[in-house]
């Protein structure tokens, strides 16, 4: 799902009035903390519970009262998942798909974003409007012709079919364009031009190094989105060649009633994004708060 | 002389054509794999095109639409479910997000922890989370029924009823997206000048009044934005209803189609019945319906008072 509109600009602050700001942002009392902790618990609970079930024996899921603390059978269950389905293939496919898409989106977005922000060419504004407009288009609804195309190319059931439509995003181009607009002063590029740099060298030696923070945030979002993508891989792939998400759905749809197995697979599938999230959570929060990102 | 000439020509190429080369990959790839399939959907929707028929594709003009709109109760059932889920997801999502943003806007210790906490649901995979929630909403051993039982509510068969299944699916969507909208609102709340609240306090306005009279009106652009974003997402829910009841008949959305959304019906017609023409017609109608509903959402949120 990628649908992003032009993010609204936040209301401007009224200037550096320290005392007034302190007054406005009241210090949190015990009730605020209680409410926030409740929200935090609610957010984390489903993932935590899935982990708990994954670490218990299969009969634990059907007990009353429910089990709420982890047990010692996690690795046993993980081994069972890998025995039951080709989860190794699913993980490999997901890693290949998500990494390729991430590299491509970051590269092409940075290149196009640089051109839109810092180079002058005829039709620039009109083309930029097209990019912004296409962000709101629900490309998912074109799933039937896309499937027909992939069959025609002989790509259906192969992971190319998942990778290629994800190689560029309107959001990425717009995101990088906004960043370049603010981050690189025109004088710096002018100086580079005086020294005889062509635009490609300016991009490589000036723009790209300066864009690293934004490119990293874009990369994080893109990776997580690609990893979690469900609908298109479900349509175009087959159970014999799955991504993690489609393998999960096959496992859940199977005639097994062993939900411990299914939830263990769900836990394994969540771990990679969870690691990314724990390492870079601060940047992800900052990215969402500075612009609008929709997964 | 020749060297200068070549350098000049190179420079001209660089300023005139290079920018187009930099933006070309986006336009080419998006055009071929994004825009073209979308436009071609309209074309296919005018055809009889079923992969299971051997007679190939031929034009039948508006017959698919005629069938869909006037002779297909399953479609209207799916549209009804879609609208019901839209209401049950979008409104709670925006209201809860406003409340959570208000909490996060206080001076809080470990604020990064809380902010990461609210966005955690948004980064988890929709497939994994739906499978987890389907267990939590289980009839016999589900945790939610166990908790309700403690309060004497008895066992609810969440999947069986229309209302209960919609509530369960809406819970998954709201859980997933509220934190995202809360962070968008928080970013704007932090930019509201304190003097506004000071003046309101001097006039005797209580915290609750300040929230509705100052905070919400000033967040109007973000509320409009979030409503539209949430609408486009919530009008085509597919993974949640599909995986709420996984199995051979997953694409019908329950035994009585009680939670089959329009997007899920599109999937059923397209990829279990292989009726591409009909499925494309559903896509077109759903796209139009989404624009109408998003427009309604815009009109409603635009009316938020700004004094």
TrEMBL record, chain A:
The keyword Transport applies. The keyword Ion transport does not apply. It is a multi-pass membrane protein. It is found in: Cell membrane. Residues 91-280 form the ABC transmembrane type-1 domain. Keywords: Cell membrane, Membrane, Transmembrane, Transmembrane helix, Transport. InterPro entries: MetI-like, MetI-like_sf. Belongs to the binding-protein-dependent transport system permease family. This is Binding-protein-dependent transport systems inner membrane component. It comes from Kibdelosporangium persicum.
From TrEMBL, chain B:
This is Binding-protein-dependent transport systems inner membrane component. The keyword Membrane applies. The chain crosses the membrane at residues 20-43, 83-104, 116-137, 276-300. It holds the Pfam family BPD_transp_1. Keywords: Cell membrane, Membrane, Transmembrane, Transmembrane helix, Transport. InterPro entries: ABC_transporter_permease, MetI-like, MetI-like_sf. Its main location: membrane. It is a multi-pass membrane protein. It comes from the Bacteria. It comes from Kibdelosporangium persicum. Residues 79-297 form the ABC transmembrane type-1 domain. It is found in: Cell membrane. Belongs to the binding-protein-dependent transport system permease family.
């Amino acid at each position: 799902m990628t649908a992003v509109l032009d993010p609204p600009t936040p209301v401007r602050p009224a200037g550096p009035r320290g005392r007034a700001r302190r007054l406005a942002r009241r210090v949190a009392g015990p009730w605020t903390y209680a409410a926030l902790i409740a929200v935090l618990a609610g957010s984390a609970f489903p993932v935590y519970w899935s982990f708990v079930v994954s670490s218990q024996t299969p009969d634990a899921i059907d007990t009353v009262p429910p089990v709420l603390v982890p047990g010692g059978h996690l690795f046993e269950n993980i081994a069972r998942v890998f025995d039951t389905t080709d989860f190794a293939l699913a993980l490999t496919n997901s890693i290949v798909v998500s990494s390729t898409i991430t590299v491509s989106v970051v590269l092409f977005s940075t290149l196009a974003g640089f051109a839109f922000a810092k180079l002058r060419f005829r039709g620039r504004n009109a083309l930029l409007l097209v990019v912004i407009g296409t962000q709101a288009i629900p490309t998912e609804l074109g799933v039937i012709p896309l499937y027909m195309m992939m069959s025609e190319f002989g790509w259906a059931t192969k992971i190319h079919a998942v990778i290629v439509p994800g190689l560029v995003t309107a959001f990425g181009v717009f995101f990088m364009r906004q960043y370049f607009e603010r981050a690189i002063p025109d004088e710096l590029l002018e100086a580079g031009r005086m020294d005889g740099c062509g635009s490609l060298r300016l991009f490589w030696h000036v723009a790209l190094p300066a864009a690293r923070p934004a490119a990293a945030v874009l990369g994080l979002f893109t990776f997580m989105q690609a990893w979690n993508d469900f609908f298109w891989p479900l349509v175009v792939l087959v159970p014999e060649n799955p991504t993690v998400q489609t393998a999960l759905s096959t496992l859940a749809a199977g005639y097994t009633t062993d939900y411990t197995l299914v939830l263990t697979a769900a836990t394994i599938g969540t771990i990679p994004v969870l690691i990314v999230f724990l390492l870079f959570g601060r940047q992800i929060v900052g990215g969402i708060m500075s612009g609008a990102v929709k997964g | 002389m020749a060297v200068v000439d070549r350098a000049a020509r190179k420079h001209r190429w660089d300023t005139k054509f290079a920018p187009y080369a930099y933006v070309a990959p986006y336009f080419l790839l998006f055009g071929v794999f994004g825009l073209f399939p979308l436009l071609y959907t309209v074309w296919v929707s005018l055809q009889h095109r079923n992969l299971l028929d051997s007679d190939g594709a031929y034009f039948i003009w508006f017959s698919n639409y005629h069938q869909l709109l006037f002779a297909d109760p399953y479609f209207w059932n799916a549209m009804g479910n879609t609208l019901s889920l839209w209401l049950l997801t979008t409104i709670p999502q925006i209201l809860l997000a406003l409340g959570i943003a208000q909490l996060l806007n206080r001076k809080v210790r470990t604020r990064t922890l809380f902010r990461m906490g609210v966005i955690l649901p948004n980064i988890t995979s929709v497939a994994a989370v739906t499978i987890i929630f389907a267990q939590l909403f289980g009839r016999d051993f589900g945790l939610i029924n166990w908790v309700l039982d403690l309060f004497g509510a008895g066992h609810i068969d969440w999947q069986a009823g229309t209302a209960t299944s919609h509530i369960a699916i809406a819970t998954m969507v709201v859980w997933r997206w509220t934190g995202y909208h809360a962070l968008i609102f928080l970013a704007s709340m932090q930019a509201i000048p304190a003097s506004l609240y000071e003046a309101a306090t001097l006039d005797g306005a209580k915290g609750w009044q300040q929230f509705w009279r100052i905070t919400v009106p000033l967040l109007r652009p973000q509320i409009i934005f979030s409503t539209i974003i949430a609408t486009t997402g919530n009008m085509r829910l597919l993974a949640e209803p599909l995986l709420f009841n996984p199995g051979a008949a997953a694409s019908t959305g329950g035994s009585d189609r009680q939670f089959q959304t329009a997007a899920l019906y599109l999937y059923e017609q397209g990829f279990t019945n292989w009726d591409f023409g009909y499925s494309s017609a559903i896509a077109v109608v759903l796209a139009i319906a989404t624009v109408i509903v998003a427009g309604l959402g815009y009109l409603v949120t635009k009316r938020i008072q700004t004094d």
